[in-house]
Amino acid sequence: MLTSNIKLPFRQIQLPLPEIALLLAAFFWGTSYGITKEALLYTGVLAFIVIRFGLTSILLTPIFIKEQRMGLAKDWKFAIPTGGILLCIFLAEIYGIFHTTASKAAFLISLCVLITPFVEAITDRKLPSTAIVLFALLSLFGVFLLTTQSSGQPTLNTLSLEFLFLDLNKGDYSILLAALLRACMVVTTKSLLKGKTLSALSTTSIQANVVTLGALFIFIATDNPIEQLFPTNLSFWVATFYLAIFCTIFALFAQNFGVKHTTPSRVSLLTGSEPAFGAIFAYYWLGESLNTIQMIGGACILLATIMATLRK
């Protein structure tokens, strides 16, 4: 495993870089919900995807060209399918959230944590490890508690009833599709890019290009107002630059970097801590409060990610 040695006066600590990068990606993704909601006040969904990933493409193009000349991106064609999956993920997530509640969407999208080990098991033709399954179940249980929005102070009995009688609408099914696609994304990336000459940044660049072109094609085909592509509000561009640099470039780089140096199951598990970081951001930045059950859920998620990070 790739590590970074930090020398201290008394001892040497090894930090697992892939896991740390994935946790940082989860943190940035956790902050992206509120910021994206603000950005969407000034433009449409498809236009926002075009602008966000178009900006990402522009920022990464010089790096891709440099690595292409150095022979570090000669296998770029293998990243194209992952870009197509990423486009479908964003479309499913954003359109799904319009037809369901945010709490239910957060729970359903986090099912990718549970789905990934089994998708990986199918492709590798072997059973997922017991530890990964237990960590995933703990994280999934934590997400369920964290995203509970029951009136009053919920109990575990009421939570069980809510789960059993969960009413899925078209938005919920769209989020479920996104969760499945997220699982397929990391497994496909691991499979297609294994042994290929393609850096994580070049992979992110190709994916951003595919998402931009795909979203732009859909935008034009569905006759959306062209003005949506040119918002003039400064707050929109501040939010978009933040999302492009931290929540897209860095986060996707971290995911692609993590896939190369750890297992797809651990990638999904660590990025599955996203709802916990989102709750912390909402609490301190937006002033939202958490009840006891939700705080227990957040603790479960963070506990699962810590154990996965420390486990060799």
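^ that was protein a. below is b, sequence first then the tokens
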Amino acid sequence: MKNLKCLSILAGLTASALTGLVASANADELVLSSWLPPKHPIVTGVIQPWADQVAEATEGRVTVRILPKPVASPPEHFDLAAEGIVDITYGLHSFTRDDRFLRSRIGQFSFIADTATEGSKAYWDIYAGNLDAQAEHQGTKLLGLWIHGPGMFHNNQRKIETPEDFSGLKIRTPGGYIANLAQELDITTQFMGPGEVYEKLSRGVIDGVTFPMEALQAFKLTDYVTSSMKVPGGIYNTSWFMVMNEDIWDGLSAEDQAAIEKVSGSALAELAGGAWDGADTRGAAYIADKDIEVYEAPAPVLAKLKELAAKHEAEWNEAVQKTGFDGAAALADFRAQTGISN
């Protein structure tokens, strides 16, 4: 089955990606597949700077080349690294539709952080620490974890003033926790890559999207959104990973491994969080003169979200306990670090 998956992914490679794979045979040049637009804040503010830091930290012995086009679709990116098709990838845990990243969901819940920097640092500390994130990323070396800024609810049909106002809306979600939460609000959810949202929103296939503030600018959605609802700590968040193929990692010298770890982990979480926060600030300024109403979630909506969030957290904790971890304590620690009370 694993070989079939590799063949399936390889069959879809572009010529440029194949060229990159051949080039990765050089031991000191690692190939990274990137699926976000090249000018997205995460690429320009996180992926490229981290690659530069790796080269500097290893004194040029290890370099990272970012491919100009992704090797496969966003949901396939973890397996690309785990199976050695490329050396390094990043992605969202919620894009993977099985339970291999069960404990990662702590980074997807509502009400966990008001800034991506605080949330990302707490996420690395708790998920990579007490919840043993490395064990859930089999076949890879876990280099980084982060979350984006507080997730918001954007749509072009109506302002959300009561829980009933969610009913019937067609909303793109990134899967995972927010998809389940939205369905309980009688929302019709659709999953698609971020790059597909503009077309689907402009054509009326979807009515809205769950995204942080920055995405309205990054994906040029301001002409097709009229209402953006904010929730303290986020209506949801997304949990991100950066991983390197385990065999490639093991083949590096101990000196280079230590150098790469120094610019990864908590340092990478802070770098990514800062990039997201900066992008959210620019996004808020960008839409300030647009015909979009940005507002705080009304009390009845907030109360319903808290009710549903508590249920999902309890179900998650029960599942996590079966793997030998205390999810409730970890989530409490997370919120204590970010200063969010729920």
